[in-house]
Amino acid sequence: MNRIAVILTDANRRILWVNQDFEVVTGYGIGEVIGQTPGKILQGPKTEPDALQRIREGLASEESFKETITNYRKDGQPYSCTLVIHPIHDVDNKIVNYLAFEVNNDQTPNHHRISLLNIKDRYRTSSLRGLEEIRLFERIKEVMVNEELYLNPDLTLRKLSLRLDTNTKYLSQVINHHGGTNFLSFVNSFRINAVIQRIKNEEFRQHTFFGIAQRCGFKNKSTFYKVFRDITGSTPKAYGRMITAELEAKRTAGNSNQPTH
Predict the structure, then answer these.
(1) What ranges do the domains of the chain cover?
(2) What is the mean pLDDT of residues 148-174?
(3) pTM of the full predicted structure?
C-alpha cells in the first residue's frame, strides 16, 4: 500500500498536525514535530539547493505546486520524495494554512500518477471543509488497516459509513477525492496488499491463489484476478514465481556466505 505523508502547518509553516504515514515514513512522532518547520526537520546535506529555491518561489506564488526533493529520516537516511504543497485560503483569500503531501519515490512506482498529485483547484480556496476531508480520509485508512475491515467480503459503503459515523455520500466523495478511486476499488487495494503479503510468506504452497484471496476478502475469482493484474501488472502465479525466485536467491546467497570448515 502506498504511504503518503501529510503535513498541516499554520500560515508561518509551523507544523500543526501530521498523519500516521508521516511518522512511519520519517521516523518522527507527531510530538517531536509540532511547532517546527518541515524544512528544519527533513532537509539535510543532499537536499538539492535548486529544489529549495523552487519551493521558496512556489510558496511565494501562493499557488499549489509540486517538487521532487531529497529529504532525511530521523535515523539520517536520505530518501527521494515528491512533495505537493497546497496553500489554504480563508474567505478573504488570506493564507491560513499549508497542506503538504509527501510521496516516497523509492517505494511508490509511478508516483507521478498518484491522484493526490493532481493539484488542479482542489485546495485552492478550501478551508475547514478540505481539512475535514483529509482527516476523514486518514480515519478511513486507519480503521481499514487496524481493524482489517477489508477482510469482510460483505463490507459495504454503508457499513463503513456507520463505523465512521458519517453518511455514504460524503464518505464516497472523500474516497474519490483523496483516494482517486471508488469505494470498491479502494477496499480491493487493501485486499490485494494482504494477498501479496501472504504470497510473500509462500502460503500458495498450501492454498490456491484464489483460496488466499478468499481469506483476504474476495468473493469472486475473476474479480480477484483482474484486480490483482491491474494493481501489480502480473498474474498471481507469475508473482508467486517471482517471489520464489527471490527467496531462493537469498537462501543461496546466505549459504554461500556461511563459513566453511
Answers:
(1) 1-124, 185-256
(2) 94
(3) 0.60
